[in-house]
Amino acid sequence: MENFNARITEINDFADEADATLAAHTGNKSNPHGVTAAQAGAAPASHVSDSTKHITSLERTAWNAKVAKSTLTTKTLSKTGWTGSEPPFTYSLSVSGVTSSSVQEILPTTDATEEQIVALQAANMQDSGQSAGKITVKAWGDKPEIDLPVRIIIRGDL
């Protein structure tokens, strides 16, 4: 039991030391390594240029650009907006914020009726391209005969 208690004390001491090291890193953003002025002169150039330990300003900018928020909008796919007399039927939808390379998701609204959900599923819709401010979808199944309310998420994280 004495050996066990000694080991617990050792683990607790290690945890306290780790907490102190973490606090030094997170509490001092301008000097996250807690390097003293005397140590700074002695830091090897290999440490400073090590891309595994440090990121460049270009990498930081690229990473920060990835944190853009997604946007949500609601639209209605009107039963009269579908073109074609047989599958695939097409529908062009104007959506602010869409670009030629953005990523979107089209989902039924949370208040869609059972009839609207069934019609969405029966349409068997697929992405058919996009351009600035416009999404085109194809329906490979039934041409919707009722208006379909949808949510469009323009992804900002991809």
Folded structure, characterized:
The chain is α+β, with helices and mostly antiparallel strands and 158 residues long. It has helices at 2-27, 37-42, 45-48, 57-65, 114-123, and strands at 71-77, 89-94, 103-108, 125-131, 134-139, 148-155. The strands form 2 sheets. A 3-stranded antiparallel β-sheet has the order 1-6-3. A 3-stranded antiparallel β-sheet has the order 2-5-4. A hairpin with a 2-residue loop joins strand 4 and strand 5 (134-139). The longest helix is centred in the first third of the chain and has 26 residues, at 2-27. The two termini are 54 Å apart. The relative contact order is 0.16. The mean pLDDT is 83.
Helix content: 25-40%
Structural class of the helices, strands and pairings? alpha+beta
Q: List how many beta strands DSSP finds.
A: 6
Secondary-structure element order, N to C: HHHHEEEHEEE
Which features characterize this protein?
158 residues, three-stranded antiparallel sheet, 6 strands, 35% helix, elongated
Summed up:
By secondary structure, the chain is α+β, with helices and mostly antiparallel strands.
How are the elements arranged and paired?
Layout: H1 2-27, H2 37-42, H3 45-48, H4 57-65, E1 71-77, E2 89-94, E3 103-108, H5 114-123, E4 125-131, E5 134-139, E6 148-155
Antiparallel strand pairs: 1-6, 2-5, 3-6, 4-5
